[in-house]
Amino acid sequence: MSGVLIVTGASTGIGAATARVGARRGYDVCVNYRSRSADAEAVVAEIGKLGGKAIAVKADVGKEDDVLGMFETVDRELGPVTALVNNAGFVPGRATADQVTAADVQVTMDTKVMGIILCCREALRRMMPKHGGEGGAIVNVTSPATQHGAPGYWIHYAASNGAADTYTIGLSKEVAQQRVRVNAVRPGFVITNFHINANWPDRIEKFIAQNPEMRDGKPEEVADAILWLLSDEASFVSGAIVDVTGGQAGMINPRD
């Protein structure tokens, strides 16, 4: 496996694991981040120690100018992207529908929905044969919250991921004849900074007993699924939404 891989939100957690696994499998990697520069540079350094090539690029994927700048930097330093993982996601905190602020909704939607749409657009302009590309693969990281709705704490985040799932399905059909495959992965309870950033650090502890395997997932387990979807081993897989949840289909006590 070789080519140029962009991973958004790659300074920590699932994104960082995906960047590391991608580098081990032969990709040159763009480690995108919004604010955690030290963490992103640490991922780049780790990839370098493994003999891989990586760069850290600061960009808020919800902002068009930032996305354009990121892809231009990758073009210049690594070459045109051949694989894209839209992992970035953010929710400022826990809020019910009658309490959520417009600002919280805006940043949640901008990061997940606008970020995926803008990054996919720029990737397609480099991947599609009609634009001079040779094809490629895209994986969008969404959430099982699209299935249970996340009532009682952040249904706006669930809604943003529902939009991402729908976009994945539609885009996969739109670009299929241009040799671009598009899939999504929905991770279950995985210990990352996401929960801390959302001001709910004990979230997994509250819900882990609901998992059939009675454990949390590891970022590398999600990364392996993502890299499989990017690989030629998944050459006939497109428009799929793969749950990586340890068998957990929903939430028993979502308002806990």
Query: Tally the helices: what do you get?
Result: 9
Distance between the termini: 44 Å
CATH topology: Rossmann fold
Count of discrete domains: 1
Q: Total number of β-strand segments?
A: 7
Q: Please identify the structural class as seen in this structure.
A: alpha/beta
CATH class: Alpha Beta
Average residue-wise pLDDT: 89
Structure, described:
It is a single chain. The chain is α/β, with parallel strands linked by helices and 256 residues long. It has a single domain (3-244), classed as NAD(P)-binding Rossmann-like Domain (Rossmann fold). It is 43% helix and 15% strand. It has helices at residues 13-24, 37-49, 64-77, 102-127, 145-148, 155-174, 193-197, 203-207, 219-230; strands at residues 3-7, 27-33, 54-58, 83-86, 136-141, 180-187, 241-244. α1 packs parallel to α2. The longest helix is centred in the middle third of the chain and has 26 residues, at 102-127.
Which tags fit this structure?
alpha/beta, 256 residues, 7 strands, Rossmann fold, disordered C terminus, 15% strand, seven-stranded parallel sheet
Helix-strand layout with pairing:
Elements: E1 3-7, H1 13-24, E2 27-33, H2 37-49, E3 54-58, H3 64-77, E4 83-86, H4 102-127, E5 136-141, H5 145-148, H6 155-174, E6 180-187, H7 193-197, H8 203-207, H9 219-230, E7 241-244
Parallel strand pairs: 1-2, 1-4, 2-3, 4-5, 5-6, 6-7
Helix pairs in contact: 1-2, 1-9, 3-4, 4-6
